[in-house]
Amino acid sequence: MLEAVGEEIDAAREHMLLLGCGTAEEKLVEFIISWRARVGRRGALANLLPLPMARRDVADYLGLTIETVSRLLAKLERENVVRVIPEGLQLMGPTERPLLFERSYMAAAPVNHAT
What we know:
Blueprint: H1 2-19, H2 24-40, E1 48-50, H3 55-62, H4 66-78, E2 82-85, E3 88-91
Antiparallel strand pairs: 1-3, 2-3
């Protein structure tokens, strides 16, 4: 139970940091990276990232508009950083460090998941 509470606290802290990020693009990039890490805890990290929520839900979670999320995903897709697929997102680049990580300032910092 203590481990589950620790994970929830980490998730809440990450969400607060995410909302405090600068630009809308930084918020979206950090969301995708943190979602990949969360999904990766249940299995191996992969470049195919299931996204079981609508763009409106992502926008609400990040405090953005759906238009902004759609525009940013289209921009990342044009720049060959991600590809939007029906199942979610395909992150371009090596599995160990997709190209999206180059746009992140938080991905370089180690995350402490001590429980």
